[in-house]
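Obj.: predict assembly geometry.
Materials: sequence records (below).
Method: joint structure prediction, all chains together.
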Amino acid sequence: MSAEHLHDLTLTVNGVPHPVSVPARRLLSDALRHDIGLTGTHVGCEHGVCGCCTVLLDGQPVRSCLMFAVSARGHEITTVEGLAGPGGELNAVQRAFQECHGLQCGFCTPGFLMTVTALLAENPSPTEDEVVEGISGNLCRCTGYQNIVASVHRAAALMTDGAGEPRP
Amino acid sequence: MTTQLFGQPVERREDPRLLRGEGRYVDDLGRSAAAAAFVRSPHAHARVLDVDVTGALNVDGLLAVYTFEDLPERVAQPLPLLIPHPALTHPRTQYALARDEINHVGEAVVMVVATDRYRAEDAAERVAVTYEPLAPVVGLEQSEAARTLVHADVPGNRGAHMVQQVGDAPAAIAAAPHRLDFRLDIERSASTPLEGRGVYARWDAQDDSLRVYSSTQTPTGVRAAIAAILELADAKVEVIAPDVGGGFGVKIMHPWPEEILVPWAARTLGREVKWTEDRREHFVAANHERAQEQHVSVGFDDEGRILGLDVTFLHDHGAYTPYGIIVPIITSTQLPGPYRLPAYRVEFSSLYTNTVAVTPYRGAGRPQGVFAMERTVDRIAAHLGLDRTEVRARNFVLPDEMPYDLGLIFQDGRPAIYDSGDFPESLRMLKELIDWDGFTAVRAAAAAEGRRLGIGLGCYVEGTGVGPYEGGHVHVETNGRVMVSTGLSTQGQGHETVFAQIVATELGVPMADVHVTTGDTRRFGYAVGTFASRAAVMSGNAIALAARSVRAKAVKVAADALEANPDDMEIVDGVVRVKGSPADAIPLRQVAVLSNPLRYSFSEEAKAATQFAAPADPDEPPIPRGEAPGLESRDYYSPIRSTFANGMHAVIVEVDPDTAEVKVLRYAVVHDCGNLINPRIVEGQIHGGVAQGVAGALYERMAYDEHGQLLNASFMDFLMPYATEVPRIETAHLQTPSPLNPLGIKGAGEAGVIPGAAAIAAAIEDAEGYPIMRMPLSPDDLFRLRREHAEEAAS
Ligand code: FES
Ligand code: FES
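Observations (raw structure tokens):
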């Protein structure tokens, strides 16, 4: 088998351009993790069900395991590494997860943070049902979700208090 | 003032890192490592006739293809049997790569190593294996019938057989005024952490040493196995569990074939090699648990007091027994729960099937035992027309009977003796929390709207904190950092936080100064592992003991320097001082300098400390015999036997009269794990456990077909609950401290999952009005049951 054809492209992640050279079949999740080295985006199933690999593509949550890196060309990608402030200070969603013990092993957490960021951007004060519905595409094996739901409400409260906007 | 941090719901130390995406899980490491992939058997039972790798050889980026034939002699032995037991008369373990026979779908046959995972999979796809399929054995009934054998040299497919008894249960049942006999069934499920397994190995040819990162619950165990099998000195092998994305039992199994093969390949190839399990591999190559068929006979009096209980069960241990028969042993000994059984007999056969091996999954045999016991108590109540809580209360072991000896031998080979607990009080709290007595009205109100509700409960006692030991190391550095380590590893339990709370409290230092490392053999070489709800009990106490000796040493050194009486000293906020005379004080970091007679002044601390240094006695050695330089200590905690935590869950369900869907409306938990180090973390553990209990009762099962194919080996088909399926959990804590350890704690990790299936079955039974004898129960199952009972009633 001969060497694969490589595509040279630039992926814009958290506002930073990253030139990469990848075969057409390279998943966006793998490009982020292994080509660029942003390993905060996790892979729990590679078939689009667990939500661990969720990133924002132009502000919309997508599963990076269901997308080829080459298709992300020209889009703004946001990963979990793009949430905290320049000095590493946690944003409102991250703080809420810490305050409410919304994570245990932390493997699902980046996916939840990205999903919740998009959820709250669209609906700043969701009801209980809207929160449960909003995170119902992400699996967590550790927490039983109760504290994640509490974290989302807490994040909404922190944000309306003006204590912090979700970045971006 | 140093606050008392033990017992406080402090925020977790590990969170900021994990929330910023800065966690380091195995697959986050080793960007330049070569990638391994495996060719796995598509057959459940087969002979390997031929392996032809030629098709793979021209794949771009291929580095190596290994079959059984390529393995050196020691690696080509069957993998170890971790926990032998006299009752396990026919143990069988697998080869790292299949030799000539396959015993389950997913068994590894060939390992491929290439420059990246995509290419490794390309090559794996091009390996041609010729199999001669054999008739598979699937399920307990087929295995017991033994018309086909999994291993030709294991008669009756029976790996183990064991009987334990207290009193003469058959005679007691025969003489009892009432008797019931029935069968119960529980299906397979699995831990299913969101991070699968993973191994990353670095061979250092210049240093002749190996470093391995593994997503494991026992790095010290993995190190010992690798050193033995690769014939290396222990000192030349380092194993580190970095951040681990959940374990729940499956990662206590070791060594996995991959934990041997990947390091071996790294050494053979002279380059870094990494293997990251994908989700399908995890379903078919990582271990499962739970499946049992139980036959219960019980004799009782008119008041519902149990006079004799006789349980015979079949346990499906899959294709191999690498972890021994811990799971059915735990089922046997934990089955009695909080009840006094005057006569108890339990017998099990542990059987081979052509499916993935069975090793502990959170609860480890307890959910099955509790299912048997609680279903039994509910049947007694139904038979006599008594309230289910009343029958329980009449059979409880009472607080003044503690310590209570069950007369059975527990998983650690020691007597099962309950150390503490107040079951009547727990039940009172549970009834209050769920409003048990008010449920009749709730049910009637719902019925008036055409809704069908039921309530149920489940009680359990859980042996936690099993030995033999764990250790802890506490070191106050001269910069004031308190470095703490213990050998067992962490999979989300917040050990960095709770162990720091313990040390901050014991030592009198701010928590911010305490830094905890778990699961790194470079820091602590002796450990057992994280399982059996033992980490907080074992390592927590070991670390507390180590912190206490550091404290004693600090006080002694400071007292010498200040010419004070050690009994008059205290440590507050990292400063050792004379009580009532705060000016006579030395910061711990300076005590650390003083504790070492070699004192180069690399830092201001060292210079500052010299003012306190007493003139040395020229006739004494600088370090007296029996003492050591440095403000540090290592200690071990080794209990005489396990502690026993306990709890009770109550559930209200609604069943849909048309679709037979089950919705959990309320889920209440009363939990007693002794003193709580961090209530927030304990609650989190309970929540996660309950979610797995609900999952095991209503959603998750490993659906093997008659060919031994796992039909639902993906998250599309294996129904792990989302937020929409897990109920809100209401909790209350009873704290009866364990008298067995210095901190008075009992384990909490597994508790939440244990009575879930029993309590939910009871609630469904209450709603439906006929017995529920199996779990899990899908809407489809319930719909069928309903129809069967309607037909029965009609005829
Ligand atoms: S890894 Fe993408 S959804 Fe699971
Ligand atoms: S915190 Fe472990 S999977 Fe969610």
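Conclusions so far: Residues A 103-109, 140-143; B 194, 246, 492 surround FE2/S2 (inorganic) cluster (ligand 2) (CB under 6 Å).
To do: check interface contacts against the pulldown list.
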